[in-house]
Amino acid sequence: MPNKKSLHIESSGQLCIYCGACVGICPLNCIYLDETRITFDERICTRCEICVRACPVGAIEIG
Amino acid sequence: MLDQKTDVLVIGAGPAGSMTAKWAAKHGAKVLMIEKRQEIGSPVRCGEGMSKEWLPEVGIRPGKWINVEVEGARIFSPSEKVFEINEKDAGNEVGYVVERDGFDKQLAIDAANEGVDVVLKTAAVAVLKEGKRIVGARVKQFGETFEIRAPITIGADGFESQVGRWAGLPTNLQLRDMDTCLQYRMTNVDCDTRYCDFYLGKVAPGGYVWVFPKDQGLANVGIGVQVSQLKSMAEARSYLDAWIDKHPGYAKGKKIDIVGGGVSISAPLKQTVTDGFMLVGDAARMIDPLTGGGIANGCIAGKICGEVAARAVEANDPSAAFLQAYEKGWRARLEEKLYRNWLAKEKLCTIPDETFDKIIDALQDVRLEKLSVHNILKAVHEKYPEVTKEFESFL
Known about the structure:
Distance between the termini of chain B: 57 Å
CATH architecture of the largest domain in chain B: 3-Layer(bba) Sandwich
Strand order of the largest sheet of chain B: 7-6-15-16-17-14-18
Number of domains of chain B: 3
Number of strands of chain B: 20
Radius of gyration of chain A: 11 Å
Shape of chain A: globular
CATH topology of chain A: Alpha-Beta Plaits
Oligomer: heterodimer
Radius of gyration of chain B: 21 Å
Number of helices of chain B: 11
Largest interface: A-B, 24 and 34 residues
CATH architecture of chain A: 2-Layer Sandwich
Strand content of chain A: 15-25%
Order of helices and strands of chain A: EHEEHE
Number of domains of chain A: 1
Number of strands of chain A: 4
Low-confidence stretches of chain A: none
Mean pLDDT of chain B: 93
Distance between the termini of chain A: 15 Å
Mean pLDDT of chain A: 88
Helix content of chain A: 10-25%
Helix content of chain B: 25-40%
CATH topology of the largest domain in chain B: FAD/NAD(P)-binding domain
Number of helices of chain A: 2
CATH class of chain A: Alpha Beta
């Protein structure tokens, strides 16, 4: 996956409140919310950064 | 759990899901409702304000889930001039402040009492298709995967709905179609339990700050901001913290709970059914785009959805053509208001703070007999004719 920035969703609970805002806004439907875990599909994600803006607590970072 | 068959599979046990399940079962269908969480209604993801006049229509009786009954709403302009609205006119976030987890549980109990099978800790991971038709879902429970087959599948999986998109319905939101929300439940704050309070303007671009009172000196203090107006990380939290810092009656309070979530503020979807499948509630973007309230609309549509599902099972016809009865039914009941409030919201998002101040200033001097756009504009026109000029097109 060359040239893709890294996306990190902090879902250990230090920041993430498991609210699902990122899941609902993701235009590619590639973020998944378990009760206490958020994951995303590395292959589908285009790093559009929309979830970064939608997260109310800043738990998603793009590097 | 094993692979199984049912008449109606409902994915998600929030208010819309439970209401759909209950009414489908009441009309004779065999209904299975799955919920991915281990506890229905918890954790709460809601400001907990809701109107009440619609409850008899869908068969919900008042219960212990009512925490506070309010008399009305107060709208605060950016310079904090206040306009009071009585509860009947205040829109679908005002009437009761509820214990949302208790409310959701009560609705699930009502569904179960009608014969609905409720299964927890069970998440849908895909829909099953035969050609174009949806024939159930693949679900995961305790690490194992099963197939549930049903002629009618219903997506009631909330704001973060994935089921609708798996079924091929375009539910994607633009940045401007979503508010991101954060709320603290606070104790020891100076709030008036007679009112739900709304603060408009730059304090919350494209949304508002709310204070919904609860008993024992508690209040839900929250914010929704339009995602398209945000520039940096965690800005929703910064806006809310800044608002609280500026209000000593709240700054002295203590936070005992944090709640977050997304709210759609879009125009109504064009399509909510496909062969063998219906979408309902927040998942179908039925949230009122002006107030952000979703419970009433979800429940009202849920009743219609459940009734149509049962009829489709009875007629042995799960085609999209048959399910149009639901599409037409919920639109007849809700669409005009959703669309009108979407237009009003679009206009509100463009109003500068000074104009907000003038509007609320003009309104606080008068007692409107009935709250309508026409009456509001008339009152504003008398004091600030220059303000109403830009609203002529809106009328």
